Amino acid sequence: MGIHASPTCTMNYDEAVGFLVGEPNRGLPAMFVLMNHMRLMTATQGLGISEIAYQNAVRYARQRRQGRAPSGPRDPEAAADPILALPDVRRLLLQIRSFNEAARALLLFTALQLDLSEHAADEAQRQAAADLASLLAPVLKGTITEQAYDNAVDAQRVFGGSGYISDTGVEQFVRDARVAAIGEGVTAVQAMDLLRRKLTRNGGATMTTFMIQIAASLAEGDAARRESFTRPLRRAVADLTSATDWISRAVHADPDSAAAAAVDYLRLFGSVALGWMWLRIAGTVLARPAVRGTDAATTRLAVARFYLERLPGETTRRQDRMRAGTGVLADLSDNQF
After folding, report:
1. Hey, how many other C-beta atoms are within 10 angstroms of the C-beta on 271?
2. What is the model's pLDDT at position 2?
3. Any alpha helices (H) in the chain, and if so which ranges?
4. Per residue in 219-274, pLDDT tens?
5. Spatial distance between the Cα atoms of 44 and 51, rounded to a whole number of angstroms
6. Rounded to the nearest 10 degrees, what angle do helices 255-286 and 295-322 cross at?
7. Does the annotation mark 77 as catalytic?
8. What CATH architecture is 29-185?
9. Which alpha helices (H) appear in 194-222, and where do they start and end?
10. Domain assignments of the chain as residue spans, ordered by start
11. What does residue 269 show for φ and ψ, rounded to 5 degrees?
12. Of residues 28 and 24, which shows the higher confidence score?
């Protein structure tokens, strides 16, 4: 389907001799150190495809003329307006952009934790950073790669029928984005790792620390100026808190329901983490009067509002789906599938 010219291969170990590397029975913990880095790299791959798909779609939307804006011609002298004048095209593009910029910030934040886990001043700081990076790794991998594929499809949608032919190149982004969500563990695997290993780590202390950091960001700065950004994020954080309490109980009391809800929980978690990044970005802009009125600053704040205004609807929808339980999943026998 994709990743053409990728330097991959199949290795066959028949008749090979194996040698122990490291301590006996410590292979799995060592692998997860590697996996945290690989998850971060795979998420970065997904984001890269999402970004190049966005750039191509924006360029096409500015150049392609078809129809008129609903409120009247944007360019009366021309036979048609650019499709960028159409509200649904603008919606698709802003959905992609608002995701990409927040995802880039969250990837950098997590990469910083990996650096701190090795180079912070004391062991307590190093361990706290390692735990936070470990918590976020499956969230990044699952959220970014799944949404990157959806974004590539939306970018293709901007091209209309021409997005389905190879001349535009956008169809390759769709194919290549698909593998990122599958490689290094499908999203359900990431979700179960988050649920069974990461949420319960240190008695849930790492998750508590993460939520405390979000609460601190919500509380700082000029409350009135930040209200349009903090209000929707508070609602989304409430959904994440409620969902975390529910799934933490369900994983022991009703493991099947917890497993059925795991992917929705991961996506809810990821959406809130991205919203937190947008709050931090917006807060940085608002705290600098010298740049607040610039075109770059007003654009960034507008994109932040676009993402955050839609966030509570997403988190509420995910939580409702989580609480549906196994339902029909358990009612059907194997041969009814």
Report:
1. 26
2. 67
3. 27-63, 87-119, 123-158, 170-182, 187-193, 205-219, 223-253, 255-286, 289-292, 295-322, 328-331
4. 998 888 999 999 999 999 999 999 999 999 999 999 999 999 999 999 999 999 99
5. 10
6. 160
7. no
8. Up-down Bundle (1.20)
9. 205-219
10. 29-185, 198-326
11. -55, -50
12. 24
Q: What is the pLDDT of residue 9?
A: 80
What is residue 253's predicted lDDT score, i.e. its pLDDT?
Answer: 92
Give the Cα separation of 76 and 263 in Å (integer): 48
Q: Give the residue-averaged pLDDT of 47-76.
A: 95
29-206-279 Cα angle (round to 5): 125
Per-residue pLDDT for 3 more than 80?
Answer: no
Task: Give CA separation, 95 vs 88, 312, 336, in Å.
Answer: 10, 15, 38
Contact partners, residue 209, CB within 8 Å, separation at least 6: 128, 131, 132
Catalytic option among 51, 184, 309, 314:
184
Q: How far from the centroid of its chain's Cα atoms is residue 134's Cα? A: 16
Residues with Cβ within 8 Å of residue 43, at least 6 apart in sequence: 103, 107, 140, 141, 143, 144, 145, 180
pTM, 2 dp: 0.92
Give the span between the Cα atoms of 247 and 260, in whole angstroms: 10
